[in-house]
Amino acid sequence: MEKSIKTSIVCNASAKCRGGPLGFQLAIAWLLVFSSLVLECTRSRAIGQSPGEGPTQIQPAQLQPAQPEPAAEVLEAQKQRIEAMRVAAQATVGVFGVDGQGGGSGVCITPDGYVLTNFHVSSPFGHRMRCGLNDGKMYEAVVAGIDPTGDLAVIKMFGRDDFPVAKIGNSDRVRVGQWCFAAGNPFVLATNLQPTVTYGLISGVRRYQYPAGTILEYSDCIQTDAAINPGNSGGPLFNAQGELIGINGRCSFEKRGRVNVGVGYAISIRQAMNFFWHLRSGRVLDHATLGFTVATDTKGKVTVSNILESSDAYRRGLRYGDEILRLDDRQIGTTNQLKNVTGIFPPQWRVALRFRNDTDTVDTAIRLQNLHLPIELEEIVKGESSEEPKAPPKSPQEEPEEKPDAEEPGPGTPPQGKGVRKKEGALPKEKDALADRYETKRGFSNYYFNRVELDRIVGLQKPRNQWPKSEEAWVLAGTVVGETTNVQIRVTDSSLGFTLGDKTEAVDAKRGWTPWIQQQSLVPLAFAIRTWQQWHESGPRRMGEAIYIGRSPLVGRAGLFDTTRITLGEVDAVVYTAPETGTIQCIELFTDNQSDPAEIYFEKVQQNNGKEIPERIRLAYGLETRLVVDVVRSEWEPATVIESGKEKGGD
Amino acid sequence: MKLCVPIFLVVTVAVFLANGPTQSLARGPIDACEEVELASPLRDADPLNNNAAIDLDGALDTAPIADTKVPLEETDLEELLGRAERSVVKLYGAGGARGLESYQSGVVIGDGSLILTSWSTVLDVDKVRVVTFDGRRLDAEIAGVDPQCELALLRVPDSGLLGFELDPQNIAKIGQRVFAITNLFGIAAGNEACSSQKGVVMAMSPLTTRKGAMKTLYQGRVIVVDVMTNNPGATGGALIDLSGRLVGIVGKELRDEQAGIWLNYALPMDVVKNSVDRILSGQANVAAANTQAVPQPHRLNDLGIALIPDVIPKTPAFIDWIREDSIAARSGLKSNDLILLVNDSRVDSRKGLERILSTINRGDSFAVLVQRGQELIKIQVRP
Q: Which residues of A does the annotation mark as catalytic?
């Protein structure tokens, strides 16, 4: 009974639960008393006592014969569990509003304080929040990126560079029957900043949960019976070893009210990590669509029922009626499976696809496209968030939306936990210490973080001063791999020359690139070299509007690469760089979203007096390689020498 | 043990929050069969948004059934549940309206041709749609029901599934670790396996302990578990022990009317086995087709019974009103009685009742079993 009373007090003191908190607490406390009597009566009966003997305390010894000593392996397992929970609890974050109101959960995954949480946890707080760790301290935090569709957000804590982090697990290895535990801040109990840990079983994997009245969509999620309650949202789900396997965010409640009934869902950590660097970009993220829909026939064949001709899948040869066999590494037998896989990837990522048409089985990779229009996302964010851009404490008169927490959230169910951020006149008087860590910009939840990431990318190009000023022409000469055909690319600030064999094409250095790309010519090789030159010489910011996108995969290469998009006049250049070295791996040149970009891969790069010079360059459209060039010579010469038209220029 | 109590209480009792209005099931099963009434708005989703496509049929080409002969004796939990899941099926039938789910769970038993489940309104269809763990869809017929235990047996031609053995000796003990495998909330769709939950047996107790508090036909002993197993759609699911053997069939949702507490329970194996035996021995079956109609049978009108109008294919045989001084009135039948059995033949619908009556001579008396409120009452109708 002590427990129940304490529960009520904590809830009362901290949460100031809206929607009849007193009634709720009284009900809980009262019921605890009442039902324990019922329980004890039931038990008394079960063990053969008559209920007339009164509600005596059950003695454990009556239920089972006393065991002298637990087996050594049981004690060992317990020890391991305690240790796993101890470590995991350190990285578990309680998320509160700046005025200490409300509350959700999160998990810290980098020493400098990046925290994964739910979008529906962060959004009511606007861009500013406070995070509590189990070291007993509160840390100021600010939102970075948000993903309204996938219900994820990244927030960043400040004040330490050695925050405890959760070890990232492998959610693809999660199986039904494994033990797991959730940690977090259910019912805003963690006002002492000690997370609540609940133990449970993995009940299901790869579940697809439809949006609950909003666009939040849980695909490929993990189902557990570990108690996940309001306030647990955004918090970590760990496997028995204490590795992070998911972000808790949803429950099935239905008619029993907003408390756990043995069914909670976590976003897989794989999905979260796919989006993590995108979230760090401070953008409002979108989710992806394949560009086609499928239907499942009576034999379990998943076939294309509709396809956009502008989609990458169409360009890769997928047609109406083709059978989908595999997406990413997952065999596809149902529509839900297809949606599950699609949901875990950001748009623009390329995903492996295997399909069967009338004659062949085709293996390809398709570029995912955006699920929403930017304007749609804006409206969603507006609707979900009660943020007022300038003032850290958000407007108190906004409706405290409660819906995304539940699959079947009921109107009139008392908001618990994070639903309680309304407090009249709770504006902090002091100036916000993190005011300079927040910048508004259209399409961004916090543009500050885009600058941070772009600074990091730029910082990786240290030997910039080694690059000659572009008054000089940069000439790369080489041969087509496997042939003797000569290739020369000459780049100046005003014009670009591309010579293949005895034919030279000259293009303006700033405009007129579109037709060359759309006709899938070889000339964009020169555009990429120009981009390479500018990237190294002046940096992405001076080239055009540069936005850090996140990290993305490249076909045929392991790992993820920092991705930066630069608007160069009418063409968008997407530059992929290695996370550690900053070396450019690939440049994609987009003219629009309806046609294939020119993809220029830098297969080999050599260091030349502190400069990085491409050594092998490959041009591809779609997935088809058009030209591979081995560079044999790189030099700078006075720019005035050549302004070529169409003339013979092979050397 | 002391520690267990508050934990249980928090989990189970906090459901009192269900003081709001009962919410309707907003969504049908994602992968439900065509004849199921789906309250799903998602069916008509935007065709160009691929995420909105609906899976209308979820079978796989392959049917990777474990051909192991050993009935679940693994100790490794992952493997144990992975196997047990394969013997629990998702059932889809009537329902979908407010508070009435159109789906529930079923347990494959014996040689795989029988599915044991709860007798509920979900089964009020000609053919119950069975979806297996690997997404195959089968049609099941009702082999028989046992109103007292609220259990039903379905027959499927060839499920290819390994069935649980019904061992009446496998009685759950208090404190025992159990797992519930059910289709709760209809979460598992298509080729997804049912959900597994862990629990501990808290009590073995008759449901009548607090008379009148629980609206249930079944009044016998149940296994009470400490976690929320009996959610919507969970009924008919399996409760298994640590060696993968069936220890119980998850019961219907049950709420203490006075306290608002939801009970989480399962029917124990001895009760289940007994019930299945009775069903299989034909004690509670639909009238055999070979029973001949007699020239001068009983007629509802002559008996003084008016049933509710026959509006759906399987309208239950609910008595709308009884004519005063009629045979029915004198025998003790009342309005709002639901006729379940006539001479031990199951009455599956209004039409079924008429069919059975047509085989009984007008001069003969017959026995009926009716459900009146939460009671089962046997009545002898004497002309």
A: 120, 151, 233
User: How far apart (Å, rounded) are the C-alpha atoms in residues A552 and A183?
Assistant: 30
Residue B292 lies in domain: 287-381
Q: Is residue B35 part of a domain?
A: yes
- The chain-wide mean pLDDT, for chain B, equals 76
Domain shared by B230 and B159, yes or no: yes
Q: Which domains does chain A have, with CATH numbers?
A: 2-63 (no CATH), 288-370 (2.30.42.10), 462-641 (2.50.20)
Tally of domains within chain B: 2
Q: B50 vs A262: CB contact, 8 Å cut-off?
A: no
Together in a domain, B375 and B239: no
Q: What is the 3-state secondary structure of A189-247?
A: CHHHCCCEEEEEEEEEEEEEECCCCCCCCEEEEEEECCCCCCCCCCCEEEECCCEEEEE
CA Rg, chain A, in Å?
Answer: 29
Domain boundary (B248, B263, B280) is at B280
Chain B residues in contact with A376 (beta carbon < 8 A)? none
For the segment A41-83, what is each residue's pLDDT rounded down to a tens digit?
Answer: 333 333 333 434 444 444 544 555 555 778 888 899 899 999 9
Give domain status of residue B68, yes or no: no
Give how far A207 is from chain B: nearest CA, Å: 7
Please tell me if residue B196 touches chain A, with a CB cutoff of 8 Å. yes
The predicted-structure confidence for A467-487, as pLDDT tens digits, reads as follows 777 678 899 999 999 888 999
A457 vs A465 pLDDT, higher one: A457
Q: Contact, A507 vs A523, CB < 8 A?
A: yes
Among candidates A17, A411, A418, A413, which has minimal Cα distance to A232? Answer: A418
Co-location of B168 and B291 in the same domain = no
* CA A241 to chain CA centroid, nearest Å: 23
Contact check, Cβ <8 Å, B202/A39: yes
Strand, helix or coil for residue A349: coil
ipTM: 0.75
Chain B residues whose CB is inside 8 A of the A39 CB are: 5, 8-9, 202-203
Residue holding tokens 């606007």? A126
Report the residue of chain A nearest B15, measured CA to CA. Answer: A256
Name which of B190, B326, B193 is nearest A336 in CA terms: B190
Residue A604: helix, strand or coil by DSSP? strand
